[in-house]
Amino acid sequence: MCGIVGYVGDEDSAPILLDGLRRLEYRGYDSAGLAVHHDGQIGVVRAVGKLRNLEKALSQAPLAGTVGIGHTRWATHGRPSEVNAHPHVVGPVAVVHNGIIENHLQLRKRLADQGHSFVSDTDTEIIAHLVALELENGGELESAVRRALTQVEGAYAIAVISTSEPDTVVVAKSSSPLVLGIGDGATYCGSDIPALLPYTREMIFLEDGEMAVLRREGVSITKLDGTVVEREATHIDWSPVMAEKAGFKHFMLKEIYEQQRAMEDTLRGRLDRESGDIHGHEIGLSTDDAKAIKRVYLLACGTSHHSAIAGRYYIEKLAKIPTTVELASEFRGRDPIVGEGDLVIAVSQSGETLDTLEAAKLAKAKGAKVLAIANVIGSAIPRMSDATFYTHAGPEIGVASTKCFTTQLANLLMLSIFLGARRGVLGDEERAALVEGMARVPHLMNDVLVGTKQLVANLARRYNHARDVLFLGRGLSFPIALEGALKLKEISYVHAEGYAAGEMKHGPIALIDENVPVLVLVPKDSTYDKSIGNLQEAKARDAQVIAIATEGDDEVAAICNDVVTIPAVDEVFTPFLTVVPLQLYAYFVADMKGTDVDQPRNLAKTVTVE
Ligand code: M6R
């Protein structure tokens, strides 16, 4: 997830572009840059790190000109560095891009075979090469961009300028967001409304498969096939604070809503529905490597530890490898038996958590291979790992992890399918069915979100005074019970515990009375019958039982006080769906209590202390 901006007008463009980027910095902040037309040339300034570094660079090398584009980066291909920062310039063309080009490796090879050389590791540079090449074939910038984009697969919002047309910015969109702003004698583009809000409230939302040419006098929109699109501007009356969070009250809620997009970005280029397989080059394991793995260790903390527990289920079930999950802080405190032949998977949203980093270093020193699953490109854990399978959730601002948790689950499931297939223990048919099912998950998550939101808000209102709340689940629902409890504790400060449902009778059941809401995860899966038994045990002790169950499950509905339903899916996909109402429940309870949802007391987003 990155932020892009563009401006065509009569004002000095650099301050306008910088201001727009400042409002988009929540979308990424590992590097930034501007490209501005000046005297028949394109001036470019880029800097690594937060926007203030770009401001400093601009104060030393100012860019004058009234037409330009800008970018704030959240690295997806190529670590944060000046050379990987946008805009990317090839010949007369400069490009900024938000998204992921799926076929960039094939395109890079083709262009290299034709004699092109590359300066960055990014997928974006490919677009700049393609547009420059098409411009050489003649015609306007608009048609060159159109022809270039027919060769590109994946997600993009791009803004392009060329010395051949100093008064235009050409933009295009597929999957990634792009908004156009219509001002008085000026036009704008940006990844999101906030970037443009101080300059105009008249905005046009570009749709997938559309492009536009921005000129001072207005914008002209076409589809990629050239069909003209007529679209009126919409008047936006958001306040600046609402705009920063895209209209959501808190980043956490926004991030819960972003999960469909985050999942799609994470699956993009990895799930291949045509071949029914996983593209696993980032995993860094050949078929022989996969076959040689004797044991897997999953190391993580907090929410990432919960996704790791689900990961153990996936790896054992689909890849048939003995797997151990460890709290990183405990693992590194022992003298663990780990070494050659072991695959250690370090799971960390930030990639900087000290305990996970040190535990992974310890395992590596003992001879294990380390694979990171992280969201922040170029962070410490990926840097020390043998390979990294990144989640593409985009920056997560809320301290309570939501979209990073579900994208970690996605990577762990894809990794398990990959390992199972390469080890020859997962048949082609089962593998293809899993890939197909996985592709549908992001959409189903959004259905669950939209379909359960009101009911969950009502439940939160009814139970938000409870002092203690229990979350129960078996099998793949156990880590989700842990995650539901952690979410509630960390943002609402309510005492909550997650238990393996089968453990209740060994002690925790003593906690239950009529004042304790018990959230039981009971989707129709292989643990269903046993979970129903546990649910009844709680009900028999007068608990207020709220079930997260499969649509149409009348048996559960008859026993429980309340039921929140998810669609029927294969067992391996249930965690993606059951966690959504639990995230919402924690959010609503915290909001009703008036806590600081995005920055709860005593917590930090990245824990770099022991
Ligand atoms: O960045 P990491 O995934 O390594 O962070 C691990 C935990 O600190 C983190 O998941 C924490 O538990 C979150 N606040 C949970 O919402």
What structural category do the secondary elements indicate? alpha/beta
Distance between the termini: 30 Å
Helix percentage range? 25-40%
Q: Which ions, cofactors or small ligands are bound in this entry?
A: 5-amino-5-deoxy-1-O-phosphono-D-mannitol
Task: Give the biggest beta sheet.
Answer: 8 strands, antiparallel
CATH fold naming of the largest domain: Glutamine Phosphoribosylpyrophosphate, subunit 1, domain 1
In which order are the strands of the major sheet placed?
3-2-4-1-10-9-11-15
Question: What is the molecular shape?
Answer: globular
Number of separate structural domains: 3
Describe the structure.
The structure is a single chain. The chain is built from 20 helices and 27 strands. It has 610 residues and is of the alpha/beta class. It binds 5-amino-5-deoxy-1-O-phosphono-D-mannitol. The site of 5-amino-5-deoxy-1-O-phosphono-D-mannitol has 16 residues, from helix 11.
Structural descriptors:
610 residues; alpha/beta; Glutamine Phosphoribosylpyrophosphate, subunit 1, domain 1; Rossmann fold; seven-stranded antiparallel β-sheet
List the helices and strands and how they pair.
Elements: E1 3-8, H1 13-24, E2 31-38, E3 41-48, H2 51-60, E4 67-73, E5 88-90, E6 93-101, H3 104-113, H4 124-136, H5 141-149, E7 154-162, E8 169-174, E9 179-182, E10 187-190, H6 193-196, E11 202-205, E12 210-215, E13 218-223, E14 228-229, E15 234-235, H7 240-244, H8 251-257, H9 259-267, E16 271-272, E17 277-278, H10 287-292, E18 295-300, H11 302-319, E19 323-327, H12 328-331, E20 342-348, H13 354-365, E21 369-374, H14 380-384, E22 387-388, H15 403-422, H16 428-463, E23 468-473, H17 477-492, E24 495-500, E25 517-522, H18 528-540, E26 544-550, H19 554-559, E27 562-566, H20 574-593
Parallel strand pairs: 18-19, 18-20, 20-21, 21-22, 23-24, 23-25, 25-26, 26-27
Antiparallel strand pairs: 1-4, 1-10, 2-3, 2-4, 5-6, 6-7, 7-8, 8-12, 9-10, 9-11, 11-15, 12-13, 13-14, 16-17
Helix pairs in contact: 3-4, 4-5, 9-15, 9-16, 11-15, 11-17, 15-16, 16-20, 17-20
The structure holds 5-amino-5-deoxy-1-O-phosphono-D-mannitol.
Residues 301-304, 348-350, 353, 356, 399-401, 490, 603, 606-607 line the site of 5-amino-5-deoxy-1-O-phosphono-D-mannitol.
